[in-house]
Design brief:
alpha+beta, 5 strands, two-stranded antiparallel ribbon, single chain, Nucleoside Triphosphate Pyrophosphohydrolase
Length: 126
């Protein structure tokens, strides 16, 4: 499943993503972000650790979301099997979602880090 960011946040397609809140583990943040962005409720034990951490330069237009001087991001990647395809979007962040096959998702994804995560998820489910 991919989510399309609202136009004011770039209008591109991505998986569920987000940042850590104070005191959160990466797993806790992943569960919270899945719930906030899709309405799907799941347990930490349902997350599949992809063994992938993407490190990348934060695009200048997005640096305002981070503390002063922060120029790089670390993205810890998980996958999740979702038996129910009902999604409740947060309209502040996303305006559409699509369930697509692997090849279509690779074409739709905007960020290279998202493509790496998708490839890792594909490998994990084989």
């Amino acid at each position: 499943m991919l989510l399309r960011r609202v136009s004011t946040y770039g209008g591109f397609w991505q998986p569920v993503t987000g940042s850590l809140e104070d005191g959160e583990s990466h797993r806790e943040a992943a569960i919270r972000e899945v719930r906030e962005e899709t309405g799907v409720r799941t347990a930490m034990s349902d997350l599949i650790d992809l063994g992938l951490i993407n490190r990348f330069v934060i695009a200048p237009e997005w640096r305002g979301k981070y503390a002063p001087g922060v120029t790089h991001n670390e993205e810890v990647c998980f996958a999740l099997r979702v038996p129910d395809r009902a999604v409740l979007l947060d309209p502040v962040e996303h305006d559409a979602y699509e369930w697509v096959d692997y090849e279509t998702a690779l074409e739709m994804l905007h960020w290279d880090s998202s493509k790496k995560a998708l490839r890792a998820a594909e490998a994990a489910f084989k």
